[in-house]
Amino acid sequence: MDHLESILDAVATGRYDDARAILGSRRGENSQIAGAAIDGLERREALYRRFDQMVGAEIVNMLAVAQAGLEGMLDGIVPVDEESLHKTLEAVQAMGALLKGVGELR
Which DSSP helix (H) or strand (E) runs through 58? Predict the structure, then answer.
């Protein structure tokens, strides 16, 4: 039972190699199933990290567009008209939609 608790603790804290090392000393069908589960969890976590990086980059880009538009308007470089305001609003709405979508996935 000590091994099981150690494996679960290692997996829960993202120490997949430690979990495999503890599991490595065991043989049998249950060990193979646990090993496959550990591999699957590690792949899933890597996908989530990559997804978070991609979403973060998209939000940063949209925020930069909105910020540049507003700063341009304040500095007098970009005209304060309906078209300019609409472009800025579109960037903000895109960020909102992306964040809403991410929230629904979790």
Answer: helix 29-75
Q: What is the pLDDT of residues 76-94, one digit of tens each?
A: 999 999 998 998 898 889 8
Whether 66 contacts 91, CB under 8 Å: yes
Q: Give 90-93 contacts, CB < 8 A, sequence gap 24+.
A: 91/62, 91/63, 91/65, 91/66, 92/62, 92/66
CA dist., res. 95 & res. 100, Å (int) = 9
Task: To the nearest 10°, report the CA torsion of 54, 103, 9, 21.
Answer: -30
0.70 surpassed by pTM: no
Provide the pLDDT for residue 101.
82
